């Protein structure tokens, strides 16, 4: 895909994710547990993600959602085999998203459509970058596919945790987990998605993000 296409997906996905945080996560967490667990979880998720993201940046995955070859080359110079670091970055981004999908089942057995769309859109560019990086490193197709299958499996376990482990738990705990995931996701959006969206689409980034937000808002209210 061209950089502009990837950036447009990023911008739209960022809008979808921000809408999902607002209307699928934070609002529901507030209703479940009130302000204290929501505030603690939200800030805690942001702090935890920031620390993990800094460690990954030092490993060579700072620009894992960026399509600019020059930026990816910087990561490559820092770590000549950073394809695996990119994949671990995808896992870091995907775990809170997957927990959100699982928690959404607690409302009555239906996966939140907005949450699934948001997760899907946010991971397309990252998956492309990581797979391309491992291919350039000479990794065999079977190894690349096995690694991504493992990531998908762990993400599935995170969804299972969100549904099974939190089913019947005190609403305040569930609210805190939802808010923690929301804080991590919002931090991820601002740190990794927004820069690429703006640099790739320039003055259209905001418009595309608004379209994503509106689409997600409509789905959450009309579904």
Order of helices and strands: HHHHHHHH
Q: What portion of residues belong to β-strands?
A: under 5%
The share of residues in helices is over 70%
Rg on CA atoms, Å = 17 Å
State the total count of DSSP E strands.
Answer: 0
Q: Average the pLDDT over all residues and give the rounded result.
A: 81
- Uncertain segments are none
- Annotation field: number of helices: 8
SS content category: mainly alpha
Net shape: globular
Largest sheet features: none
Cα end-to-end separation: 31 Å
Offer a quick outline of the entry:
84% of the residues lie in helices and 0% in strands. The protein is mainly α and 223 residues long.
